[in-house]
Known about the structure:
Elements: E1 14-18, H1 25-38, E2 43-47, H2 53-63, H3 73-97, E3 101-105, H4 108-118, H5 123-134, E4 141-146, H6 149-157, H7 170-186, E5 191-195, H8 200-219
Parallel strand pairs: 1-3, 1-4, 2-3, 4-5
Amino acid sequence: MSTSNRQGDALGKFITFEGGEGVGKSTNIEFCRNLLQQQGIDVIVTREPGGTEIAEIIREELLKKPHQERMSNITELLLVFAARAQHIEAFIKPALARGSWVLCDRFTDSTIAYQGFGRGLEIKLIDQLKLIAQQGIEPDKTFLLDAPVDIGMGRARSRGPADRFEVEQLDFFNRVREGFLSIASSSPERVEIVDAGLVLSEVQSDLQTAINLLLNVSNT
Ligand code: T5A
């Protein structure tokens, strides 16, 4: 069920930005925030894992490197969804109900890509947790910023020390990328692939076109 057709709710839009490490999600979310604000839209930016006090504490544990013990894949999955459940309940749902547009840096597509394709957990398991945590909340639109792994990793590494995910091997990130592309091909209406390997001005020109289209559609 899309956020925009929940009966009785205000028509805020829920837009997610997905992709591998360092592909430019944060940079381009800010760009889109500005574009939307220029149109007089009430926009808020948030991220996953995180976005609320409790969810940010979970994020710390998920990204921290290293713990004394290895975090199991199932623990990682449950923590991601615990953070998401809190984020949806305490932040995303109220914002959409107020009519705000919510721009979110990563959401459940990241779980399918990282914990499903990357760690090898069953997608069926992820779907079960999604049902519990999301309470029908789904993105109206997703921009998948896609770039070859070496480009994204190069950008991410230039920014600072690696976190618990960024120390994974190339194989892992190639599976993650394959996961995102597989989601895009199975949900072509929701997920728009943006070539994030291009120079920033070209990436942003493509996003501007997509946002304009979204605004036209939401005004009709
Ligand atoms: N995770 C998350 C899961 O495993 N499961 C889940 O369900 C969820 C939600 C979160 C980690 O958690 C994992 C995945 C992640 O490993 P994060 O901080 O969200 O961590 O993830 P990152 O992808 O690492 O975020 P980054 O902030 O590193 O990357 P961004 O936001 O994609 O990239 P950005 O905008 O910071 O850009 C990186 C650099 O590249 C430059 C920017 O200026 C910046 O310096 N840049 C470009 N340079 C040239 N050309 C372009 N087109 C450029 N675009 C950006």
